[in-house]
Predict the structure.
Amino acid sequence: MTADPTLPTCAVHRDRETRLRCSRCGRAVCDVCLQQEPGWRVCPQCHQELAEDGGTDRGQTHRLQASAPLTFGLLLAYGVVYLVGELTGGTPSLVIIEGAQINDAVMAGQWWRVLTATMLHAGITHLLFNGYALYVLGPQLERSVGSAAFAALYAAAGLAGGVAFLFTAPGEVAVGASGAIFGLFGAWFGASWARRDTPQGRAGLSQFGLLLLINLALPLFIPGIAWQAHLGGLLVGLVSGLWWAHLRGTSSSPGARVLVPALIGLALLVVLLWYT
């Protein structure tokens, strides 16, 4: 098989073609060379430089924001919405009253609550937990598949979590981005599973598998967690991650990456509108 002249070769292994690049310097590297850093993946040289200076890097935040605008936009929105809720006062706040997924209200026609609830959080701990998970899981995923596909996954997973909670917990109330966050977990795990025959895939399975087990077990020890939303978002993420892994290495268009999560999200929206 002849080599593809359009593909760059790994900066370390010159005999290996690759579509991967270091998130910090842009150097072409193969999957064996990529090193995991919080929120991004870097080449061996950048990994060493970050380790030597304690992981700090001037301009790092700017580059991350520029390459993953949706992730950092969501983080900002989380904070702003929470602050508005705190400033309006009340227990619960007016923001929670107007935007939470109150299942009785949803079934009475207020279907949009399934979406607005994904931007609300029940307290500072809830906010920080979901915000940190988004910061760790989001930037590299958004850079890998593009902002449009990332947005489709986030929305579809959030919808899946909300719809699952709606039909399995009648009369209950929920807030939080957990369904969407579990969609990101699922996408990472699905992509790692599809590449389980590679060192990077096996490392991903070990890392994300452990995180998934811990998070899926939390409802057993902490009351009030909407585990249905977690499972709904997780399933959408798994399917999307497997789809993206299938497209990996092909000359797929950005539209192809959007296709599966967008179709799932559209189907869920139709179901939601039909029953409410």
About this structure: The two ends are 55 Å apart (CA to CA).
